[in-house]
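Two proteins were folded this term; both appear here.
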Amino acid sequence: MSSRTIRNDQEEATAWAESAWAGAVYEGDPACIGAARRFATDFLVERHGFDATSGVVGAVQLIVSELVTNACKFTFGPCTLDLERIASGVEVTVRDSGTTLPVARAADPGRVGQHGLEIVMALSDSFAVEREPVGKRITVRVSAH
């Protein structure tokens, strides 16, 4: 039986190094963006031994920031962040209550803002969006090789 640790932004997690999965629940306020980045960094660096300055950690931090920012900005209510260490790298999943699926826009260097999805897709090896009974799930994989 696998162990799972769930953490919310108001309480500390009980974590153990051998766990390949960790999850967090955020209320959707702006403070959750930084909390989610720290959670992802701790997961990779403290629990899985990644160098804090590695490209993998930087990519996951930026992906988490973009996805959680969108969840906080464009939906109502809480969002969840799941991180999983997989054989090829790291899987990041964000769930929120929004029913509108994100759509990548054509690249436009003159556009100010709204480049988050482009950034996420550029940093990831795979990107998937799925509707759920309440909202949507975005899953991204980042290679560690």
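Next, the second protein.
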Amino acid sequence: MTTESPTQTVQRLFPLLAQGKTEEAAAMFADSVSFSIPHPPGIPWVPEVDSAAGMRTFFELLQTHVQPKEIDVHHVIAEGDHVVFIGRLLSEVKKTGRDIDTAFVLHTTVVDGRITRYHLYEDTYAVARAYSDD
């Protein structure tokens, strides 16, 4: 049993991702994960995910296709096992060199020290524009 709060658990995830430590980041997830990132068709870094192994694949694909620049968390709302982060993400799509500058909401759930939910909501139009060759 962990003595960490769900908020502290999820906050440990961000530096691991920033450092490219995908294996360590994926190890923070439970065997079964509820994953959702609504996205436009053809975005190669959002696979089907339902497990910690799937989260590792997601993080590796994300690292391959997107260069993070900034993450600003403006608000953290926590209630029980649920933690919601509200902020702004700035990243560059490596294929096009274009930035994705978007507000985001990340809804997570932590049970027994493991992340069981990762639902990210962002501006899908901004993602599509940054990735598109148009």
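Residues 52-65 form the longest helix (14 residues). Strands lie at 29-36, 66-79, 82-93, 99-111, 114-122. These notes refer to the second protein only.
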